[in-house]
Amino acid sequence: RTDMATEAGGDEMKSVKDYFNTVGFERWEKIYGETEEVNKVQLDIRTGHAKTVSKVINWLKEDGELSKGITVCDAGCGTGSLSIPLALEGASINASDISSAMAGEAEKRCQAALEAAGTTPAVAPKFEANDLESISGKYHTVTCLDVMIHYPQDKADAMITHLASLADDRLIISFAPKTLAYSILKRIGELFPGPSKATRAYLHYEEDVEKALNAAGWKVCRREMTATSFYFSRLLEAKRA
Questions:
Q1: What is the 3-state secondary structure (H, E, C) of 57-121?
Q2: Bridge partners, 240 (sequence order)
Q3: What is the mean pLDDT of residues 91-109?
Q4: What is d(CA 48, CA 67) in angstroms, rounded to the nearest whole number?
Q5: 118: region left, alpha or beta (phi > 0 left; psi from -120 to 50 alpha)
């Protein structure tokens, strides 16, 4: 991690951007895709992430939100694993990723999925390359899944504050929780060679994340945890206090 940040002039944001436009894109495009060219660790991460996405979709379905064509800002959309199913369900999507390669892949996959389903959204999904702190606008729901793992707590706090300012009704975020067990597992993962090696990752104490939400005027109303062998993600849904 230090080497990557050093190469980017000490800029954490640029470090992440460079990573996901190069080797990171190659790795995660496979993990979030359907190719069989993944190892057991990568497949496990794919399964875990899919479970987190499914939980978010179920929350919105349970509340009857998607059928209303709500506006959703998917910050850090990756290859569209959440944006695409939400668009298929009728949500108006504005998705972005710090990586132009990721945002481009997400748009391509979304277009293919909509064509395959024979669906024409009332508002065409929008995908763009943008860092999280530069996103603007107002949305019914703002989502940010598995993004904070790439940033330290002070950066994560600023991100939460900004995301909260974009949401009218709901903010849904996920992060890798910092516990002794997960800290040990992360350390073990860093020792793996090649494609199995743990990517640069920060764990966050849940109380710190919730404190940032509270400071922004939001209160956690639902919590979920997804844990597989190599993927662990705490999911929080917050609404205005």
A1: HHHHHHCCCHHHCCEEEEECCCCCCCHHHHHHCCCEEEEEECCHHHHHHHHHHHHHHHHHHCCCC
A2: 218
A3: 96
A4: 26
A5: left
Residue 221 is classified by DSSP as E
- Whole-model pTM above 0.90? no
Locus of tokens 């290859």: 79
Kindly list the distances between the CA atom of residue 152 and the CA atoms of 19, 66, 158, 159, 230, in Å, as whole numbers in the listed order.
16, 33, 10, 11, 20
Tell me which residue of 214, 215, 189 sits closest to 203, measured CA to CA.
Answer: 189
pLDDT tens-digit series, residues 101-146: 999 999 999 999 999 999 998 899 999 999 999 999 999 999 999 9
For 152-181, the pLDDT digits (tens) are 999 999 999 999 999 999 999 999 999 755
CA-based nearest residue to 20, from 142, 133, 103, 127: 103
Q: Is 233 helix (H, G, I), strand (E, B) or coil?
A: strand
